[in-house]
Amino acid sequence: MTAEALDALAQRLRGEDPDRWAMAMLAAPAARPRLLTLYALNAELARTALSARDPLLAGMRVQWWAEQLAALRDAPPPPHELLSPLWSAWGADAAAFAPLAEARLHDADREPFATPDAVVAYADATGAALMAHAAQALGAADGPALRAQGRGAALVAWLRARPALQELGLGLARPEPAALQSLARTAAAAFAEAARSRREIPREAAPALFPGPAIRPALRAALAATTPAAPSEFTRRAALARLALTGRWWL
C-alpha cells in the first residue's frame, strides 16, 4: 500500500468518521494502517447498507462486500480502492471482517428491531465487534473487557442516532420509554464490566477503546428516556485530548 493510497483513505475517513480517524491517529504509527483501513471499511459498509431505497438492491450490495471479504482468506483481491489497502494492512486476517458486512444486512432490509435485546445483538455484531478487532490490532487480547466496552459504546451511539434511525425504519418497532431505558441500563452495565476488567488491556490499545465523547451525559439522558444530545466540537476535542494525555478509555 502506497503512502498516497493510505493518505487518501485517511482523508476520506476524517470527513466521514472524525472520531475514529482521530483514534487511529492516536495509535502507534505502525498500527495506523490497520485501524485506518478497518474504520474505512466500517464506514463503507454502513453507507452501502443505506445506498439504495430498494432493500433487495441494498442487500445485494452488502452481500457483495461479505463475499469479497470472506474471499480474502484464500487470495488477495483484484485491484480495489479499499479492498487492496485492507489486504495490504491485514492480509488474510481481513477475512474475519465478513461478519461485519453480514450484520449490515439488517440495515439494508430497513426492518425495525422488535425488542431491545435485538438492538443489543445488533450492537454486538457491529460496533462491539469493530472495537474488538481494532483493540486486538493494538495488542489487546480478545475478552470480556473488549466486548463489554464495545457493547456500551455501540449502544450509546445507537441511542444517539435513534431518531434518525426511526425515520429510516431502523429504530425500535415500539420505542417506548421503558425499552430505551432498558438499553441505557445495558450500556451502563457493559461499561462497568469493562472498567472492572481494565487491567487486562495494555495502554497501547487505549485509542481503539475510546467510547466517544460525553458518554456519561448521554447515559443520563437515555436513562431518563430522552434522546442524548450530540456532543459539541469542543467536547469532542476535549475528550480526545484527555484520551491522548491519560490513556483512560473506561468510564
TrEMBL record:
It holds the Pfam family SQS_PSY. InterPro entries: Isoprenoid_synthase_dom_sf (IPR008949), Squ/phyt_synthse (IPR002060). It comes from the Bacteria. This is Squalene/phytoene synthase. It comes from Paracoccus solventivorans. The lineage of its organism: Bacteria, Pseudomonadati, Pseudomonadota, Alphaproteobacteria, Rhodobacterales.
